[in-house]
């Protein structure tokens, strides 16, 4: 699988976690990008970030070929904000929409940071409630070894991969480090989904005409949203 060399100018959007980020990429190069790490500000800053990308592209005669957006798993609110903005852009510009798995994005981010042995498997994790995470297992070709799913962490989680080196990343891996007792586990902090790292995945999708429906696509939450009702004072 070739994850390098692009063929298109793509606006990449990620709002799946506390980070809100966008990146304008073309032919394997990041042309411009913005990030905000404070959390809870996606609705406020995303439109401004997108405007910054067009302020860069328009005077240079750069036109978008597609918009890519992370579609989950992740924050329910964040995913909805990002997908809504991406759909609006695609409708207005008449360009296709690319959906990127947040778990694949985390895997690519760590995959490209250094050389890994073939025995290594990547375990991206998005934090959920209590001991639960959204996770999957990928090899260094980004093949799914364990399908994306919600998982309640236990000591023997991932015991089926005891013969492999497991590299855990993402904001769910911090609590996993306190629970999982795997003999070959490596927990790498500071790896988070960001738009600048979407380029390899979005360019591959564009080359393969792997687009999602602009009108009817929805975030891949992996789990039904459970709203909590405030308790009434008695």
Written overview of the protein:
With 234 residues, the chain is α/β, with parallel strands linked by helices. 25% of the residues lie in helices and 28% in strands. The chain contains 5 helices and 10 strands, in the order E-E-E-H-E-H-E-H-E-E-E-E-H-E-H. The chain has helices at 42-57, 76-93, 102-111, 173-177, 199-207, and strands at residues 9-14, 20-26, 29-36, 66-72, 97-101, 120-127, 132-138, 144-152, 165-169, 185-187. The chain has a 5-stranded mixed sheet, with helices on both faces. The radius of gyration is 18 Å and the shape is globular. The relative contact order is 0.20. Residues 1-6 and 225-234 have low confidence and may be disordered.
Question: Top keywords for this entry?
Answer:
single chain, 234 residues, alpha/beta, five-stranded mixed β-sheet, 10 strands, disordered C terminus
Which helices and strands appear, and what pairs or packs with what?
Blueprint lengths: L8 E6 L5 E7 L2 E8 L5 H16 L8 E7 L3 H18 L3 E5 H10 L8 E8 L4 E7 L5 E9 L12 E5 L3 H5 L7 E3 L11 H9 L27
Parallel strand pairs: 1-4, 4-5, 6-9, 9-10
Antiparallel strand pairs: 1-2, 2-3, 6-7, 7-8
User: What is the structural class?
Assistant: alpha/beta
Largest sheet, in brief, is:
5 strands, mixed
**End-to-end Cα distance:** 61 Å
SSE order, one letter for each helix or strand: EEEHEHEHEEEEHEH
- The count of DSSP E runs of length 2 or more, i.e. the number of strands, is 10
Average residue pLDDT: 91
The percentage of residues in β strands lies in 25-35%
């Amino acid at each position: 699988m070739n994850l390098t060399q692009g063929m298109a100018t793509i606006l990449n959007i990620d709002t799946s976690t506390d980070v809100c980020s966008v990146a304008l990429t073309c032919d394997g190069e990041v042309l411009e990008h913005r990030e905000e790490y404070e959390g809870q500000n996606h609705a406020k800053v995303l439109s401004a970030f997108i405007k910054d990308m067009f302020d860069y592209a328009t005077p240079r005669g750069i036109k978008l070929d597609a918009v890519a957006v992370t579609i989950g798993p992740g924050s329910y609110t964040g995913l909805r904000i990002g997908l809504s903005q991406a759909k609006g852009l695609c409708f207005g510009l008449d360009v296709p929409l690319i959906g990127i798995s947040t778990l694949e994005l985390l895997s690519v981010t760590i995959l490209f940071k250094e050389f890994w042995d073939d025995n290594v498997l990547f375990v991206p994790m998005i934090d959920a409630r209590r001991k639960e995470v959204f996770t999957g297992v990928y090899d260094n070709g980004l093949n799914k070894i364990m399908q994306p799913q919600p998982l309640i962490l236990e000591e023997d989680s991932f015991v089926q991969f005891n013969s492999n080196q497991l590299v855990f990343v993402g904001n769910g891996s911090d609590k996993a480090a306190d629970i999982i007792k795997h003999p070959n586990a490596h927990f790498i902090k500071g790896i988070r989904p960001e738009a600048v790292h979407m380029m390899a995945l979005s360019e591959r999708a564009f080359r393969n005409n792997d687009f999602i429906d602009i009108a009817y696509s929805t975030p891949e939450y992996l789990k039904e949203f459970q709203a909590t009702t405030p308790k009434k004072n008695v």
